[in-house]
Design a protein that fits this description.
This is Looped-hinge helix DNA binding domain-containing protein, AbrB family. The chain has about 80 residues and is of the alpha+beta class. The protein has a domain of about 50 residues: Pemi-like Protein 1, Chain: D, CATH 2.10.260.10. The protein has two helices and two strands; from the N terminus they run αββα. It has a two-stranded antiparallel sheet with strand order 1-2. Strand 1 and strand 2 form a beta hairpin.
C-alpha cells in the first residue's frame, strides 16, 4: 500500500474504454487509493485530457446530549500506546 507521498504522474498502465463507455481503473491504483465499489468521481475536461476527481464524503459531527466526563479526554499517547 502506498504512503501519503505525492504520486503525481505515477503510471499504472493503460485502460481501454469499452463499447458502453465504461473505463476500468487498474486494480493496483484502486488498491493504493482505497477505492471501493460506489466511489464517485467528478469528470473534468482539461483541454484534450480527462481528469477524474474523487468525491469525498461529507464529514459528520457526532454529539451527545450530556456533558463529556473527564474519562473522555484521556491522554492520546497513553490511550494509544499504553502507560509510561
Amino acid at each position: 500500500m502506498s504512503t501519503s507521498e505525492d504520486h503525481t504522474d505515477e503510471e499504472y498502465g493503460t485502460a481501454r474504454l469499452n463499447h458502453r463507455g465504461r473505463l476500468t481503473i487498474p486494480k493496483e491504483l484502486r488498491d493504493d487509493l482505497n477505492l471501493e465499489d460506489g466511489t464517485e468521481f467528478r469528470v473534468v475536461r482539461d483541454g484534450g485530457n480527462i481528469r477524474l476527481v474523487r468525491e469525498l464524503p461529507e464529514l459528520e459531527t457526532l454529539t451527545r446530549d450530556e456533558e463529556w466526563g473527564e474519562e473522555a479526554f484521556r491522554d492520546a499517547g497513553d490511550a494509544t500506546f499504553g502507560g509510561r
